[in-house]
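Tutorial, part two.
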Amino acid sequence: MEDKRNIQIIEWEHLDKKFYVFGVAMTMMIRVSVYPFTLIRTWLQVQKGKSLYHGTFDAFIKILRADGVTGLYQGFLVNTFTLISGQCYVTTYELTQKFVADYSQSNTVKSLVAGGSASLVTQSITVPIDVVSQHLMMQRKGEKVGRFQVRGNLEGHRVVAFGQTKDIIRQILRAEWLRGFYRGYVASLLTYIPNSAVWWPFYHFYAEQLSHLCPKECPHIILQAISGPLAAATASILTNPMDVIRTRVQVEGKSSIILTFRQLMAEEGPWGLMKGLSARIISATPSTIVIVVGYESLKKLSLRPELVDSRHW
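Running the prediction step on this input gives:
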């Protein structure tokens, strides 16, 4: 008889096409809820010392007071194009897991390889979107941060969202042509491949450990909802130094990861590598709970009909 404490992993071949429809809707809801903290994290990582904000809460209050709710969603429309990369990530992850399963049955090995591979594929799509959206995040009246500024903001006039996007894209093309959209591509790979490669193994590790500590009757979805944020916090702490460097390379137009690291250490010391960590964890925690619960529920909803009764949740 099946041991209910063993958390079953739904594989790619168990799913049908509903998976994509549900996936886009779920990802969009998550983006809307956590985007303000993504924006705050970017500001905290780019600012020199504490010249503008003293922390996550301070940044949230100041941006909200100065620009209202819309200020917390600067660059959001452009950022939604990463929904495409999100679906590519999930597909690559699941297919790679299926491939690796022919060589290893270890969940840790499958997650490590699949997570890293999925990030490698998606960053090729995401980096140009990130470059544009990060410059849009930096557009605030009276503030000059980053290389490119929308003219209307510098003159104190309000510019509509699509006008800002068009202006930023033109400036990037004029300065560096297509290469400018892949500014920080290597730094992004060095941030997100390890982040993803670490997240999945820790997620399965925490879920397995909790399944042995909790009663058999405890629903698996609760264990997974706890494991997700724990894995996200672990991955965030391990990869935040590279994330700070990535953001500075993309926003400030740095050409060298090593020189950016040296400059950051000289200006702010080791603590500079942890800038934006709290905002990153705050945004990761609720989003990871939704992602994990949604992702696992999504896979259950997308199970082929003949397999529904064979799974214990």
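The chain has one domain: 17-146+161-302. In part three we will examine how such features are distributed along the chain.
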